[in-house]
Each structure stands twice: as structure tokens, then as C-alpha cells.
Amino acid sequence: MSPSPTTVIGAGISGIACARALTDAGLPVRVLDRGRAPGGRMAGRTLHGRAVDLGASYLTVADDGDFAPVVADWVERGLAREWTDTFSVAGPDGIGESKTGPMRYGAVRGLRSLVVDLATGLDLVTERTVAQVRVDDGPTVDGEPAAAVVLALPDPQARRLLAVGSPAETVLDPRGWQPTLAVALGWSQRQWAADLHGAFVHDDPTVEWIADDGDRRGDGAPVLVAHTTAEFAAGHLDDPAQAGPAVAAAVRRALGIDVEPEWTYVHRWTFAKPTDPREAPFHLADGIGLCGDGWAAPSKVESAWTSGHQLGLELARRLVG
Fold it and tell me: Which fold has domain 57-110+177-274?
């Protein structure tokens, strides 16, 4: 009889990194995700014939971390590209100073494509909604036994699957996640400076970040993606589409754009990012693992990958040993 696989719930970059580490160790794994494709909060959507990044805006990488060779491989194969190390800062008076930081990477076909690449060859089941994870005589997912179960989900989503008061459930934070709305705006031609790249927006109640999607993807498309403040998003979660005009006005004000966008698209992220991510890279006890960007602070793509990867390595050590 074949051994029960480890079941990973959530096909964002953390869950896929965990599954990849287990698979590379020769262990059976299956990944379950309620979406139609892997990606999680690195997802995008095809709008007006073009993929647009609506989740994470970019990724960074530490030179000495385990994530560095993964990104280098993506770059070598043309999946990822160096984008910029400089962003603008916008305020009530428009664009002001610029800020230089680490190199940010984008993806030619959108950031989701990088997660899809990591998932190549994995046993991935999409459009599969999980109702319950339990630990009785051993971990189970909707009654099916598993060698171990990994919840690579935001804390509030993971809590819904676990028994109240169970050890893993009590570790999770039900409150500390912020919402945002990602709003794509398209014009027939670019209406902003060629060197914009992206802009942090200060002292605005509506928008906190604007990315030049054509610049980060390298195709020059006249598309911007704005992320709203958590406070603004919280007031529009029930009807996010109604937020489009206010966000468009805030973007035009911040960048000094005189022309209304020809189209807008609003995507709701109810659990966009953790308010206070933990320093610990993951949690693992009683055959239940927790990972994602709520761990391995600070919250970013590299942290999410690292959290899943390290949990996968530790699970492999325990399962094999």
C-alpha cells in the first residue's frame, strides 16, 4: 500500500515551495487549491487581452539566501527580469523625491507564471475547496488521512479549517490581516513620465502604491495598478467595483494625469498582508504545518517562499527520519 501523501492546502508561492521541497526529497505530496490556477496573492488577470499583475507588485532577493538561485534560474530562462531599484514618492503636491532600494524583479508573463513554473510536475488539484482539517489518530483533510497537512493560507482562512482550540488554531491570529483593493487602470497611450516605474503615495486616504504595469512587465503597455489603503478597502469590501472612480481620481491626482482612464478593473484582497508577521519561519506540531508570508518576517515574496521551503525541509527530515 502506498504511503499517504502530505497534503498542502494553498497553491501560493509558499505552499508550492513546501510541496517542491518535499517532492525533491522523494516524498509523495498533493496540493489542493480552491482557485483555478496556482498563484495565490501573486495572481493576475487577463484584461483587454493582456495579463495584469493584481497581487504582489514585485519580488526582491537577498544575495546570500536560498531564494537567490531560484530567482537566478528564472532570470536565465527569461521568466523573471530585473525591473528597477528606484521608485518615486508622491504626495499632495504630486511626484516629489525618488527612493532607491534593492533591485525589484518583475515577470514577463506576470508573477503568477513564476508560481506555475515552480508547480511543474506536482500533484496539484485546483478548484478544490477544503472544509476541515483534523488531528485524531493522525492528520486528515475532509476525512482523508495524510502523512502531514500544511496550511499555506492567511491566518483567518486557515483558522476556518481547524477545530477551535486545537494547538494549530490557537497559534493563528484571527485579526491581524489588512485588506486592499488592487485597481488596474488602462489608457490608449501613456499619460505619465517614462521613468515612473512605481510610486509610494503618502498622505492620501485612498491610494498608497501605484505600479507602472507596462514598465515592470517590459512591454510598455499604458496600464497602471494602484493598491488602496487598508482603511479605504475595508469600506468597500462588499461592493469593490464601486471604488473604481475614487481610486482613478486619486491616481490622476498623485501623478498629475489629466485624462480619465478608458477602463478600470477592481480586485478585492480581503487578506492582503499580515499586520505583524512572525519572525519564526513556520509552525509545525502534531503533523500540522503553518507557513506563508505571515511568517519569516518581513512580509514579502521571498519570505513566503522561504517559509514554505524551510517547512518542507523540516517535514521531509521528520517523515524520512
Answer: Polyamine Oxidase; Chain A, domain 2 (3.90.660)
